[in-house]
Amino acid sequence: MVMEDLKRELETVAGQPVAELQAVYDRHSEDSALATELVSFLADPELQKPASWLLRRSLEAGQTLSVTEARPLFRSLSGLKDWETRLQILQSLPYLTIGKRDVKLLEAFLRDCLAGENKFVRAWAYNGFHELALQHEQFQSEVDQLLAQALEDGAASIKARVRNILKQQLKHQG
Fold first, then answer.
1. How many C-alpha atoms does 126 have within 13 Å on its Cβ side?
2. Which range of residues forms the domain containing residue 129?
3. 1, 20, 73, 87, 154 from 115: Cα distances, Å
4. Residues 54 and 68 placed together within one structural domain of the fold
5. How far is 169 from 92, CA to CA, in rounded Å?
6. Residues 38, 52: Cα–Cα separation, whole Å
7. Is 1's pLDDT higher than 50?
8. Where is pLDDT greater, at 168 or 135?
């Protein structure tokens, strides 16, 4: 019954200001299954935007998803069309474990985001590749090339994000 209540609330707040989304989060934040439930709503185009915002918020607050619980999220990536939804998911990647079975789905999503028109989505796609390389080392040399290229011909927002990634890499190495 809780999941149905959450679904009704998401339908109500879709398209509403962030304060409305925050209120839904505040009501459900103690539910240990919140992140898992929100992942299930990503397959519904009407609920993707509020569900992705709430998912990012819950992951930032410390909720976790196992590889198995996150799998439906990776399966839903190709169906995420709204730039804000894509951005929320990209910003959630640092909190997710990327299973071996999910790598190809995520890689395709990241490449699609890099080719997208929205500069914020493109910037966070670089960060997504960085997260992928942190968990799956075989991507590191390609990511290094992508980041170098982005610094040469990227928009200011992309360059700023890439500089942050490079700072993180230095901390990780040192």
1. 26
2. 102-174
3. 40, 32, 21, 14, 12
4. yes
5. 18
6. 7
7. no
8. 135
Q: In this structure, are 115 and 85 located in the same domain?
A: no
Name the pTM for this structure. 0.93
108 lies in the same domain as 174: yes
Among 167, 128, 130, 160, residue whose Cα is nearest residue 145: 130
Picking from 76, 97, 118, the residue at the C-terminal end of a domain is: 97
Q: Are residues 78 and 124 in the same domain?
A: no
Q: What is the pLDDT of residues 15-54, one digit of tens each?
A: 888 899 999 999 999 999 999 999 999 999 999 999 999 9
CA 54 to mean position of chain CA atoms = 11
- Domain boundary at 97, 120, 145, which? 97
- Render pLDDT for 108-147 as a digit per residue (tens, 0 to 9): 999 999 999 999 999 999 999 999 999 999 999 999 999 9
What pLDDT is attached to residue 15? 84
Q: Does one domain contain both 13 and 81?
A: yes
Helix (H, G, I), strand (E, B) or coil at 11: helix
Q: Which residue has the tokens 């898992």?
A: 36
Neighbours of 112 (CB within 10 A): 15
In the chain, the number of structural domains is 2
How far apart are alpha carbons 82 and 152 in whole angstroms? Answer: 28
